[in-house]
User: What shape does this take?
Amino acid sequence: MSRQNDISRREVLAMVFAAAAIPLRSRADESDFRLKYILASALYGTTDLDVILPEVRKSGAEHIDIWCLKHGNQREQIESMGLDAFAALLVKRDVKLGAMTRYPLGPFGLQDEMKVLQRLGGRVIVTGSGGPKGLAGDALKTAVQSFIEKMKPHVAVAENLGVTIAIENHSGSLLSSVDSMRYFAEFNGSRNLGVAFAPHHLPDAVEQMPKLIEDLGPNVAFFYAQEYGSGFTEKLPKEKELMQLPGFGGGLDYRPLLTALKKINYQGFVEIFMHPTPRGIPILPTTQEITAAVNKSRAYLESCISK
Assistant: This one.
């Protein structure tokens, strides 16, 4: 590593740790609106679960979101150790399973995994909608309506199990645009199906997002505290890659988004998140540094609420 790059990294980590030390609001402060944080296992790459789980409480969360390959391998770790062993590990580390992110299964392949989620005490399973993509107008509205119809047998299982399917508005998918999300809310009749709201996939609709959140209302089932950044798709210096995280200089003002979440009385999970390049590696070199980065973002989000 060159001296120039080493200095850059030291400066980034100094910023992370300094900001992470900012005290957060006490629960006695002005509003009873609180964010319910959940820690994404993928932030730590393929680190062992027994190392990640102690970080959940340190990050201000009680719940963990389990990711699978290619973003992490914690779901595969659970498969190797067995469900009972993982359940015991959760108890040992005083952590709850909150969500499982299962993109490879798609929206129509979740039924068995929802049973695993429910058995382990989890609440939300996140995936994408798949295609078709690039639709607009009546064609888009018809396609979203058709998607909701196809989801009904899977939603029935979710309702029976008491879990929620959250479909992320992922770029390049059917559910990706502002209009598609509004159509989703129009046709969705179940509280066990909702949107995993991802601001980082709406970079051209920043000003529309607060109103969109209000329009979606109870359809918001999960919220990513992540913003668009070039490090999402290409390898950049770490300080630029980290700009996907709230409070790291990416430019997205979270105050209107949090105000909108408060207006709809959002009670779901908030996941502080970013994608490293390449996928599957930890976002920072050590576990301690990753948790400090999460806490810096958490401090920023809490400051937005207090304002």
Remarks:
- The CA atoms of residues 132 and 174 lie 5 Å apart.
